[in-house]
TrEMBL record:
Gene: TNPO3
Entry's Gene Ontology BP terms: protein import into nucleus
Residue span(s) of domain Exportin-1/Importin-beta-like: 102-248
Pfam families referenced in this protein's UniProt entry, alphabetically: IBN_N (PF03810), TPR_TNPO3_IPO13_2nd (PF24138), Xpo1 (PF08389)
GO cellular component term of the entry, any: cytoplasm
Alphabetical list of PANTHER family matching this protein: TRANSPORTIN 3 AND IMPORTIN 13 (PTHR12363), TRANSPORTIN-3 (PTHR12363:SF42)
Domain Importin N-terminal: residue ranges: 32-95
Family matches, as Gene3D superfamilies: Leucine-rich Repeat Variant (1.25.10.10)
InterPro entries in the record: ARM-like, ARM-type_fold, Exportin-1/Importin-b-like, Importin-beta_N, Importin_beta-like_NTR, TPR_TNPO3_IPO13_2nd
Name of the protein described by the UniProt record: Transportin 3
Record-annotated membrane-spanning stretches: none
One example GO MF annotation: small GTPase binding
Domain of life, source organism: Eukaryota
């Protein structure tokens, strides 16, 4: 920007060229010029003006993205006395542009979140935002978006904030987390079956679970958990809503990895996930692979979270071995992508059992490993009409190699001869092509 501050007309022209010029060279020139503008001091004022004018989606998106980038990487350029004006301007922009485009709202929400994290003088930002927009139904969408990205940005590598500031932020967010959950609960009550609102609420709740600041006792008695599992149990739940609910449950399970200190929430999640078996079978019957994969992710996360409890007290309380039954049900699904989701859990289980070296404990888990190996042997078979040697580098070849690695980690529980005998029954019955071909052995016959 050696020529000084560019005119808005010139900026509009460059943005139009970036998105609409049929000549690739023209697009490239516009991209380079706009990149230089974003790195200049002029970007602050020009972005603000573009957002005020709201001429079109493209220019507003460029301005919102530029504002986010400047706050992330060049916040030091602004003197402290301008920070409050910038905050007020961004809040005004997101309110006036909330209906123009969701991607613009997201960029502005990120800009506001990144500003809040770096602007130490903005005390109690979450309470400020909730008090400002809580009673305005039309503002709820962007309020939830800001509250979603705020916890996600805390550990962003783009932000230049020190460890002390980051600790202070996390403490502040923990302090106001119950207020956020109460807001989300109210949103769900008002939304009824509004799918878009539910997706946003679940995404936001998952974000706060991921940061690890929610009070587990407060969450254990909160009706949002009940709503989550109701959504996952319903046959008519859409794919997008189902994925959002599944992600949220997985985040919640991951957040309570230390089960003993989160007992009340752990019990609610444990019991909730066990109710999803019927819904899984319905998804299989409807051949809805997306939902099947979601359920398997949830079952796997459940087993990962309660792994130590399961090994410590198998069959008792939250060491209930029905958790393993859920994974073995998934292992029976005809698509190998389903069982593959659970591999990390089986690796970890094998590692835990190997370290304990307790024959009685091994005897409890041996039947589950035997059934797993039986299912894996079926998945490793080639189709009857397959010709030639399978490639190690394709998806199926890589799956078979992962099976081989898993077998190495758990075979001590069943013994190599018993394993060979069991899988041979499957492979011989199916005339295992991989076993016949000496150049490419069945991954389970290698052991």
């Amino acid at each position: 920007m050696d020529g000084g501050k560019p005119t808005l007309a010139l900026v509009y022209q460059a943005v139009q060229a970036l998105y609409h010029d049929p000549d690739p060279a023209g697009k490239e020139r516009a991209s380079v010029w706009l990149g230089e503008l974003q790195r200049s001091m002029y970007a602050w004022e020009i972005s603000d003006q573009l957002l005020q004018l709201k001429q079109d989606v493209e220019s507003c998106y460029f301005a919102a993205q530029t504002m986010k980038m400047k706050i992330q990487t060049s916040f030091y350029e602004l003197p402290p006395e301008t920070h409050t004006a910038l905050r007020d301007s961004l809040l005004s922009h997101i309110q006036s542009l909330k209906d123009l485009s969701p991607i613009i709202v997201t960029q502005l929400a990120l800009a506001i979140a990144d500003l809040a994290l770096q602007m130490a003088s903005w005390k109690g930002c979450v309470h400020t935002l909730i008090e400002k927009y809580n009673n305005d139904v039309s503002s709820m969408t962007f309020l939830i978006e800001i509250l979603t990205v705020l916890p996600e940005e805390v550990h962003s590598r783009s932000l230049r904030i020190g460890a002390n500031r980051r600790t202070e932020i996390i403490e502040d967010l923990a302090y106001c987390s119950s207020t956020v959950v109460t807001l989300l609960t109210t949103c769900v009550e008002k939304a009824g079956n509004d799918e878009k609102i539910l997706i946003k609420v679940f995404r936001c709740l998952g974000s706060w679970f991921n940061l690890g600041v929610l009070d587990s006792n407060f969450m254990a008695s909160n009706q949002l958990l009940m709503v989550l599992f109701q959504v996952l149990q319903r046959d008519e739940t859409s794919t997008n809503l189902h994925e959002a609910a599944s992600d949220c449950v997985c985040s919640a399970l991951y957040a309570i990895e230390n089960v003993d200190t989160n007992m009340a929430l752990a019990l609610q999640l444990f019991q909730g996930v066990l109710t999803l078996e019927t819904a899984y079978h319905m998804a299989v019957a409807r051949e809805d692979l997306d939902k099947v994969l979601n359920y398997c992710r949830i079952f796997t996360e459940l087993c990962e979270t309660f792994l130590e409890t399961t090994v410590r007290s198998p069959g008792q309380g939250m060491g209930d071995l029905r958790t393993l039954e859920l994974l073995l049900i998934c292992a029976g699904h005809p698509q190998y992508e389903v069982v593959e989701i659970s591999f990390n859990f089986w690796y970890r289980l094998g590692e835990h059992l190997y370290k304990t070296n307790d024959p009685a404990l091994h005897g409890i888990f041996r039947p589950y490993i035997q059934r797993l190996l039986h299912g894996l042997a079926r998945h490793c078979q080639l189709d009857p009409d397959h010709e030639g040697i399978p490639e190690d580098t394709d998806d199926f070849g890589e799956f078979r190699m992962r099976v081989s690695d898993l077998v190495k980690d758990v075979i001590f529980l069943v013994g190599s001869m018993e394993c060979f005998s069991q899988v041979s029954t499957v492979c011989v019955g199916a005339d295992c092509a991989a076993t016949r071909d000496g150049a490419h052995r069945c991954p389970l016959h290698q052991h």
